[in-house]
Amino acid sequence: MIVGKTAKTKLSKSSKMKNDKILMKGNIAICEGAIDAGCDAYFGYPITPQNEAPAYMSKKMAELGRVFIQAESEVAAINMVFGAAICGKRAMTSSSSPGISLKQEGISYLAGAELPCVIVNVQRGGPGLGNISGSQGDYFQATKGGGHGDYHIIVLAPYSVKEMYDLTFLAFDLADKYRIPVMILTDGIIGQMMEPVDIGRKSEVGSRKSEKNWKLDGCKGREPRLIRSLFMEEGGLEKHNWHLKEKYDGIKKTEIRYEADFTDDAEVLIVAFGITARICKSAVKKLRQEGLKVGLIRPVTLWPFPEKVISEVASKSKKILVAEMNMGQMVEDVKLAVNGICPVEFLGKPGGAVFSEDEIIQKIKEI
Amino acid sequence: MREEIIIAGSGGQGIMFLGNLLCNVAVSLNKYTTFYPSYGAEMRGGTANCAVIISDDEIGSPVIAEPSILIIMNEQSYNKYLPKWLKSQKGGLLFFNSSLIYSKSSGAIYVPATEIAVKLGDVRSANMVMLGKFIKETKFFSVASVNDIIKKVLENKKNLLEINLSAFTEGAKL
Fold this sequence. Notes:
A: alpha/beta, Rossmann fold, seven-stranded mixed β-sheet, 14 strands, B: Pyruvate-ferredoxin Oxidoreductase, domain 3, six-stranded mixed β-sheet, 6 helices, globular
């Protein structure tokens, strides 16, 4: 993964894979990442297309002597996460779009009380119950605060099975580092697909850097602590919100992640995340072979959004294309970043349908 | 190579298992591969299909728009996929389970997979009969390498190993 600088991708044939790869499903890679990051407790309620995750966790967490609870509802699950997190435990939940909507109140409380946790959204088509195939329709909900109040959570968007592992692992560290909920925003396609991965296992040792000196673990022998999201005293909430703002600014400064391909001389720049970025990446390769100067920026953190690099590349490009599996959500953030330097086109795919490489290629040739 | 294979049938016919197996063989031979399943809410009787891509190069979308190979196990899936196939005019190989597909289409490879599976003693092994014929016709992988993977995948299900291996061997003889 590339942090704040350009990745150079060569056109030559990719090197042969090593044979220590195993076939793994995206949803399982999330679980492996969480387990290796030392997730103490998983709480969830079933929903397609993420059911492999709770099913796998129910077995694995028990084997490891950790906590697995199938809650009575999504609302219960997110509040169980709240309870575990406030005790200083590494906690997570996973669900899919309709279930994530139900969790929003809890997420707002977690953000307000500054509790670290990991929330996985394996997006499906919406609105409402929609369908069970992959979608990117929850970008607004994830990045603009799906719950009430003036808050942000960190949003990570994996684009491969390997990244499902890596970013889930990273999510636990970021959550603890900033005392903030972190969301993995993926979709039913990456969740359901299998591909060979060399997982390159990480260990939680060293990942839990600081003792959580705020956790509620019984105050025998020390002053009682208080964690809350209710600030009734005069000026109390204003002060709290200024404190949150300062924290969010810090995250914006240091945690922006993205991948940039062929952006040095790109005349047309594609901006896409998750599964769409994966499809665009193949399209860009093909277009480059035809001699067209096309580049790709793939935001890995959707919040904080990599606006600076998009603005920099836009200033050298003729046109930008934003492709998303929705009717136009991230495109608004791209337009804010570009701020009129060059035209921004949009290609959307709603209702749980998926782009083909050819559709991207055709659109690029049109514009 | 780049092959985009759609395997379709009904739940219970081992569609996912067949796709999974192909991917596992591809992994063992250092190929890039993706597997993407799609099925109704039912465990048995509903529709089930999966998309398997095997390639020498990195794979973008795991979803297949225009397959290069169709493996169809029942009439319902035949009716769903054949019109799309005919429209795409891309050409390629068609494998049909003639035990359950009564329509005829020229140039397709017909395999009485379910009948053979019943004769061997387990109707559920029709998928392995199909795999045998698929390997024989395409020669993507050697019979030995597929045999090895079947053994590996069914390591913990010894009671199913024998019937799957014999169904595969039978299919490869056709």
